[in-house]
Amino acid sequence: MNYNYLNFFQIQFVEDKQEFSRFPTKTGRRSLSRSISQSSTDSYGSAASYTDSSDDETSPRDKTQLNSKGTSDFCVKNIKQAEFGRREIEIAEQDMSALISLRKRAQGEKPLAGAKIVGCTHITAQTAVLIETLVALGAQCRWTACNIYSTQNEVAAALSEIGVAVFAWKGESEDDFWWCIDKCVNMEGWQPNMILDDGGDLTHWVYKKYPNVFKKIRGIVEESVTGVHRLYQLSKAGKLCVPAMNVNDSVTKQKFDNLYCCRESILDGLKRTTDVMFGGKQVVVCGYGEVGKGCTAALKAMGSIVYVTEIDPICALQACMDGFRVVKLNEVIRQVDVIITCTGNKNVVTRDQLDRMKNGSIVCNMGHSNTEIDVASLRTPELTWERVRSQVDHVIWPDGKRVILLAEGRLLNLSCSTVPTFVLSITATTQALALIELYNAPEGRYKQDVYLLPKKMDEYVASLHLPTFDAHLTELSDEQAKYLGLNKNGPFKPNYYRYKHASKIP
Amino acid sequence: MNYNYLNFFQIQFVEDKQEFSRFPTKTGRRSLSRSISQSSTDSYGSAASYTDSSDDETSPRDKTQLNSKGTSDFCVKNIKQAEFGRREIEIAEQDMSALISLRKRAQGEKPLAGAKIVGCTHITAQTAVLIETLVALGAQCRWTACNIYSTQNEVAAALSEIGVAVFAWKGESEDDFWWCIDKCVNMEGWQPNMILDDGGDLTHWVYKKYPNVFKKIRGIVEESVTGVHRLYQLSKAGKLCVPAMNVNDSVTKQKFDNLYCCRESILDGLKRTTDVMFGGKQVVVCGYGEVGKGCTAALKAMGSIVYVTEIDPICALQACMDGFRVVKLNEVIRQVDVIITCTGNKNVVTRDQLDRMKNGSIVCNMGHSNTEIDVASLRTPELTWERVRSQVDHVIWPDGKRVILLAEGRLLNLSCSTVPTFVLSITATTQALALIELYNAPEGRYKQDVYLLPKKMDEYVASLHLPTFDAHLTELSDEQAKYLGLNKNGPFKPNYYRYKHASKIP
Amino acid sequence: MNYNYLNFFQIQFVEDKQEFSRFPTKTGRRSLSRSISQSSTDSYGSAASYTDSSDDETSPRDKTQLNSKGTSDFCVKNIKQAEFGRREIEIAEQDMSALISLRKRAQGEKPLAGAKIVGCTHITAQTAVLIETLVALGAQCRWTACNIYSTQNEVAAALSEIGVAVFAWKGESEDDFWWCIDKCVNMEGWQPNMILDDGGDLTHWVYKKYPNVFKKIRGIVEESVTGVHRLYQLSKAGKLCVPAMNVNDSVTKQKFDNLYCCRESILDGLKRTTDVMFGGKQVVVCGYGEVGKGCTAALKAMGSIVYVTEIDPICALQACMDGFRVVKLNEVIRQVDVIITCTGNKNVVTRDQLDRMKNGSIVCNMGHSNTEIDVASLRTPELTWERVRSQVDHVIWPDGKRVILLAEGRLLNLSCSTVPTFVLSITATTQALALIELYNAPEGRYKQDVYLLPKKMDEYVASLHLPTFDAHLTELSDEQAKYLGLNKNGPFKPNYYRYKHASKIP
Amino acid sequence: MNYNYLNFFQIQFVEDKQEFSRFPTKTGRRSLSRSISQSSTDSYGSAASYTDSSDDETSPRDKTQLNSKGTSDFCVKNIKQAEFGRREIEIAEQDMSALISLRKRAQGEKPLAGAKIVGCTHITAQTAVLIETLVALGAQCRWTACNIYSTQNEVAAALSEIGVAVFAWKGESEDDFWWCIDKCVNMEGWQPNMILDDGGDLTHWVYKKYPNVFKKIRGIVEESVTGVHRLYQLSKAGKLCVPAMNVNDSVTKQKFDNLYCCRESILDGLKRTTDVMFGGKQVVVCGYGEVGKGCTAALKAMGSIVYVTEIDPICALQACMDGFRVVKLNEVIRQVDVIITCTGNKNVVTRDQLDRMKNGSIVCNMGHSNTEIDVASLRTPELTWERVRSQVDHVIWPDGKRVILLAEGRLLNLSCSTVPTFVLSITATTQALALIELYNAPEGRYKQDVYLLPKKMDEYVASLHLPTFDAHLTELSDEQAKYLGLNKNGPFKPNYYRYKHASKIP
């Protein structure tokens, strides 16, 4: 879910600079965003919602803690919170039955026996279910956080208690962040052979600091847009000497992250921040990709009148057929109650347009970055900003007009809503399968490149989640499989079928 | 729209036999289906609905007719119907403004000047708008029908009246069919350089009978699944010596033919045949591809309770998220009121299942062929068939139970509904653009192979249809185009982006 | 379903004239509409769709026919069609299980033993199921048609064959119409004690011609708006000397006739007449009552962009909350593709507005009468009318613009769609229950007035239809019934609760 | 919005006891619920969400405060918060344009000049807009809170600052509650002539303590179900000596409170408490009244699979036609993920059923009282309750199964969601109009009874809210009004039309 790009290792990677310059740097409030990845410092509200705001001010690095088995190979806020963390993990397990099911199916054969995995992800109850699955399948794991704010301290404690070497706490400094990563990788007598990363910070640390270790890695599994982008950069530069799996773009994850998840989070995000009634509201959704399709469907169903803006005529025609007026933003800017951006573009809503909005109208962003609304243009002396709730600013014009800006133009679904456990389950299951695949793949199946999850495994992830819905798959008869030219066990949408003639397009 | 396969040239193409054997042969009622394409003999109800059933029994081949300009290079039922046909064409023009718009935009430069096109399509008012557009853009055209039943005689007359050489009438014999094709191609002093085909009969006639002509063709544009399949066969066999354009699989056409068109035609087809009330009915839709998604969405909206069967876990998970129970057919067979098949598979509904259906339940097919319901299994002595309306059979069990079978298991949307002019407009515009592209492409852009329409042209077809909906596209600013790395005029979804890593899937 | 008013007995009922003058007289094509009810001469397409167009020109009145039992107390087109009619009835029975269920439940006690019912309704397979139910419950029946076009001759034959005295055929003259009614009522040695009417013609015939018979009637059950209106007129004039039941306004029937039925028939009616694609079309629906709610919901679901016009602010606010722009017709008249009227008002669409509509736009009426579109204003010399299909006229302006007028402004759902058997089943069941109630009610329960069906019986009609949907009612426990102050068997929405304070509104 | 009943003045009103016994007493946690109304002590989360939790522990009764004009006729937490409260009121005004519009229209004529209104409502920014409207229309107001928790202290301060005599603060004791009411009524030289009440506590205080004042009241406007019930009790007992207006049952308010409001709050309430993903979830909604219709529509739109239980066959048939399976709860209890009760009944979900629910399933109530789920049955020793968030309890069975109970079975929409300002605006506008009507009604229009808002005023409330949606009403022409028999300015749905035959139902 790390959509934002980051300015990682700016000094080292000067050759990448121009490429990176497409992605605007978030500046201002946090000076440390200059040197570590932006995603690692994004506020990440929901996952940590149960977490205590402990008053103990001592840095975990300065404490010596032992778990009940007497070991100390971890560094967390307070090992005594383990029991509370265990409860959180157990509750999460209830909604991640796919992972539990995978754990049970593969436990006998221990497909990860011998795997030494270093991981760098958000450390939450859901991730803990993943980590404990990896352990159950035979892996040894050392783990750190990909974000300095998102760690659930009690979960980190619970993992440390059962012997996973976790180095993470909520509220790390930049120095802490790299120290924790290093502690994961740099251990005498133990050398990782797999990497599970979310954002690319761990991968680059190993690549830069421990090139000899890096060369012996059997596979990297990367979860985020950012990290995947970095891997392609490395690959393009001929420096990626290990196979990597891009799990961010797996079909299942994409569908759930975008269409289905946004369909719900647009309503949730708007409601939690503004209590707006949807019925009768006029809303313009900029962009009719998967995210826009999800947002418009939800709002239409709730009785809003929805307009769409698009640059692509095919998407525009889809919007027409789905019952939306396709307009230019300027045509409706004076009448709409809500603007939602989902384009991935920049300056989709300009100051000039914000000037013309109605009093009380709402502006927010569901797209891939915080560039879509020109928020910077609102930081001028004649406008007053009033923070009325967390994530809610009233920007007040000299004539008293208020425009309600949510999450300062950052992603509404990340800032003001929650990611359903079900979506996290799909991600975690995909990560586990990718690790198993890379670790067990026969020599030569994967080269030094970035791969998508094989379609069949994508289908397997989906199938593991069907029991949640008590959904029953139909099985092909031999005769039918032959008729369709398919293997009875899939993949059912063969790659060749779909992309068959693609290379012929001039 | 020719989904059914055909047993074309069975004798000549013995080498293709095994490939073709996947597609079952329709037998029985029409012996001529042995030797010409099945699609060319399919009943094709809607388009010809206005057509008279003239009493003149004389074969057009035996008549000499002159149009008002005194020429006789055509063969139609009755040239005197031209005026009536002209009115039909004018009415069709009203709903095909995209084509008219293309006509106007390209008329000055005559991009088809010098093109000599032979065409073989349904001859309807909509096709006439296409043909007259080609003429307006500079082409010379000779035309014949791809189906022996579908010709609107008065439209053929109207085209002949303005000088297009049309050879077609409603109710041709098999011999007539080939005679007409031959008359189009074989004309002294005139040699075609472009082919527009729908089903592949014309292409194969030229390929077989006039190999020298075939070699000089600059391009073939093929509309149907069947014809495209034949072209790929030829290509695979190394015998396709000209570039061909597969317009059947263009994005725009696919979306409209499947999702949007089926969303409406499932309701229309069921209503016209059975007058069934949708509200409260329990329906099972087999297959959750684009067609299944369209059918389920429409029925859910009308108050039916819809179940889905699927073999592919990814599609099954989509069905779950869209609010449908995913079941095996046997779980619900005793309770459902309607079964709709959309799988492309065979024997999806078996005799055993039909035996267990409720009295008064309806069975129909929206998929790609008439194999989905095992209709043959119902032709046993203990079952009575009662034809209660056109396309509606009651199959009656010994205990009096009736199952209502629509269109004998053939495609409901073709047999019992109509194809909206808007969809025909998209197809015709795509065909016209494909002809222009192939005719004008610089040397080397296209090899001797089958191509998809370039994405940008797909987008152009879409953009030509936006004015119908008064839809206004947003244009990228220079800055935004640069930010996104796109050309301001598209294509907006670059091919590389989408298919980038496809070849890496092991 | 007889929404249109009629000019019945204009000479006799001069005292009613002013009241009646609200309802415009349809003139023109049929001179007989002056003297019999308009509804009795409305074209009534669907129900008779299976009926043969027999070539036998002899009037049934001039033939002597015997059924197989040797009796001749009937007058139908051709008694030999009885077998075919029986099949139609059997098919109808399959969709009218509620009536069959009622037949079974009440058959033992014969609640209509001694009832002598004269009926005047459409004579269709569905009505036959009703009539045979009445007979099964003990009644003697004599029957005639309420419409000169709607009789299914073979059904009339089948009823006559089993001994029901039917006097009706398709294509009666006005004189035939009254002759048939009289034959039903005026039979030596047999005097009716119950009336089942649809339109009021039978009731008024008895009232006028046989006042002594009329006084001894135990109850009248009236189905149509028209007939109910007439009964209230009689009641107001103090001339209604028997209790009458208004089954037109029963809750169940109203809901099904309007919201649920129109939701489907708007799509069906538009599709059958124009093959229009709904997706992306801009539609304005005039009136947001139950009919308007059904139409807008269906079109929105199919991807149309729907506007609403309203005069009532409460309904307008509902439209807003349901996601529709509420506009004045003039605001959108130039841009919409379809206008649908559902107001019950007159001149909702004026010539001035029709002048401003787009080329190719469609105008139709789903409201209560043919007054909503000012069709008369289109019959001027400068406009050309072109009948392109049954029920479809192109009205052509001097500049070539075409407006597509459906059913000449009459009810689209009656003229161009069908009434689902399920709705007819609800009506028929309600009629049967009303007859049972009136016939068995204790002295004094009903006075000489017009009554609604008791709520409990309305609920009973609904409950009889639940098995069709395999719907299972929850039953109140004794404790719950006590808590809610309800009888466990209903009625569940007590009248007092709903209407309690109504009389207090000043 | 006060649905819960209360045991008010149990000692005094012994004669009402049997009637009241239908409504179960909430016992336990709050002993004071014995003597003041239950609604007055309900937690009321949303409205007070901005309110500070000030640390000043001094009781307002013990402080002397002066506003800036030097007066002290009020008692609030802290008059210095007035400025902050003013901002809250100004923000609320933006969403209550109907009230502002009413203020402007009626300000010139001062229709409430001379009115002396005592009010007892929630004291929030929205109520403040109402109160200031009443003042602007000429009234003098004294105000107190109807709930001991819901007062926004800063709003109370802002009102006091401009001279409204407010006696209320957040966190009153029972004694404070009555003291505040008394201070409003009992002021030397000032005697109220109008009452605006929400819950009936104020009304009964005046009735009991100041019978002479009560007799001179010109009208009571009551907002809550509870208060309305009490008024009918008084009326039935012949003790209501003044006219009262029941604004709870106005058409507009009912529609918004139930269907439209619940459609949104069910999603909001579930999401805020559980972060559940709706897609694919199986949900059973008990009761298909307006609330149930709203809940099911929303969940269906979000991709849930929804079942309905009903006792009333008419509602059950509606559910069928709307596309829901109608089941008994026991049929689906083992498979559903969520149960939502909306029946108004008791013990709709029993312990026995809770025992059979799935691990992780959610139970909540959207109905009229906290009786629907048998929560008491869950308070047994073998079950463990775990409070995981505010309003969220995990009830844990001995085998580890968790059922998630929301708001302890109280109203989810009040406890865990917010009431949109728009709905509050409708309520407040209705209250203002009711006060104007009662205060200005000519002698004799209203007797000593309980009245509904006249239909025309209901329509007026609706019309005042249309501009919010930029909705444009169509106006009847003279000719149309005559045709329909309506006044051009409404009412448009005449009372006589709707309720015409009601009294005839036996």
UniProtKB/TrEMBL annotation, chains A, B, C, D:
<feature type="region of interest" description="Disordered">
    <location>
        <begin position="24"/>
        <end position="69"/>
    </location>
</feature>
<keyword id="KW-0554">One-carbon metabolism</keyword>
<dbReference type="GO" id="GO:0033353">
    <property type="term" value="P:S-adenosylmethionine cycle"/>
</dbReference>
<dbReference type="Pfam" id="PF05221">
    <property type="entry name" value="AdoHcyase"/>
</dbReference>
<keyword id="KW-0520">NAD</keyword>
<dbReference type="Pfam" id="PF00670">
    <property type="entry name" value="AdoHcyase_NAD"/>
</dbReference>
<feature type="binding site">
    <location>
        <position position="198"/>
    </location>
    <ligand>
        <name>substrate</name>
    </ligand>
</feature>
<feature type="binding site">
    <location>
        <begin position="289"/>
        <end position="294"/>
    </location>
    <ligand>
        <name>NAD(+)</name>
    </ligand>
</feature>
<feature type="binding site">
    <location>
        <position position="310"/>
    </location>
    <ligand>
        <name>NAD(+)</name>
    </ligand>
</feature>
<feature type="compositionally biased region" description="Low complexity">
    <location>
        <begin position="33"/>
        <end position="43"/>
    </location>
</feature>
<dbReference type="InterPro" id="IPR042172">
    <property type="entry name" value="Adenosylhomocyst_ase-like_sf"/>
</dbReference>
<dbReference type="GO" id="GO:0005829">
    <property type="term" value="C:cytosol"/>
</dbReference>
<feature type="domain" description="S-adenosyl-L-homocysteine hydrolase NAD binding">
    <location>
        <begin position="258"/>
        <end position="419"/>
    </location>
</feature>
<dbReference type="GO" id="GO:0006730">
    <property type="term" value="P:one-carbon metabolic process"/>
</dbReference>
<dbReference type="InterPro" id="IPR015878">
    <property type="entry name" value="Ado_hCys_hydrolase_NAD-bd"/>
</dbReference>
<dbReference type="InterPro" id="IPR036291">
    <property type="entry name" value="NAD(P)-bd_dom_sf"/>
</dbReference>
<feature type="binding site">
    <location>
        <position position="124"/>
    </location>
    <ligand>
        <name>substrate</name>
    </ligand>
</feature>
<feature type="binding site">
    <location>
        <position position="413"/>
    </location>
    <ligand>
        <name>NAD(+)</name>
    </ligand>
</feature>
<comment type="similarity">
    <text>Belongs to the adenosylhomocysteinase family.</text>
</comment>
<feature type="binding site">
    <location>
        <position position="253"/>
    </location>
    <ligand>
        <name>substrate</name>
    </ligand>
</feature>
<protein>
    <submittedName>
        <fullName>Adenosylhomocysteinase like 1</fullName>
    </submittedName>
</protein>
<feature type="binding site">
    <location>
        <position position="257"/>
    </location>
    <ligand>
        <name>substrate</name>
    </ligand>
</feature>
<dbReference type="InterPro" id="IPR020082">
    <property type="entry name" value="S-Ado-L-homoCys_hydrolase_CS"/>
</dbReference>
<dbReference type="InterPro" id="IPR000043">
    <property type="entry name" value="Adenosylhomocysteinase-like"/>
</dbReference>
<feature type="binding site">
    <location>
        <position position="223"/>
    </location>
    <ligand>
        <name>substrate</name>
    </ligand>
</feature>
